[in-house]
Design a protein that fits this description.
94% of the residues lie in helices and 0% in strands. Helix 1 runs antiparallel to helix 2. With 116 residues, the protein is mostly helical.
Length: 116
């Protein structure tokens, strides 16, 4: 009888040990999975920031600022510059930084939303 109880105890102990090893393996897989997702999240966040920065530079820096100044200069040298064109160019130049900042913030916010 005691031998039979010892066998059952050994079997239970082996089952518990097997379950413990299985749980440890699952925990390790979960850690690896979480680490992999952290890397993916950082990549997505970095891409959103990069795209937001590039679009902000293009729209705010090139389209609204540089192109307005160059267009105003070309209109002035060809003697076709009007007052309304000049006012629009000045407004574009003044608001270029605000628009660029808003676009960059949009990229940052999108990156933070997609990161989680």
């Amino acid at each position: 009888m005691t031998e039979e109880m010892q066998d059952k105890s050994t079997v239970k102990h082996d089952m518990i040990e097997h379950q413990r090893k299985k749980m440890m393996m699952q925990k390790e897989q979960l850690r690896q999975h979480e680490a992999q997702w952290r890397v993916y999240n950082k990549i997505v966040f970095s891409l959103c920031i990069l795209m937001g920065t590039l679009i902000a530079i293009y729209v705010g820096g090139w389209l609204m600022f540089v192109k307005s100044i160059v267009g105003t200069y070309v209109a002035y040298t060809t003697r076709t510059l009007t007052f309304s064109y000049f006012v629009k160019a000045v407004i574009k130049c003044i608001t270029a930084a605000t628009v660029a900042g808003a676009i960059w913030c949009g990229g940052y916010i999108l990156g933070r939303k997609l990161e989680r």
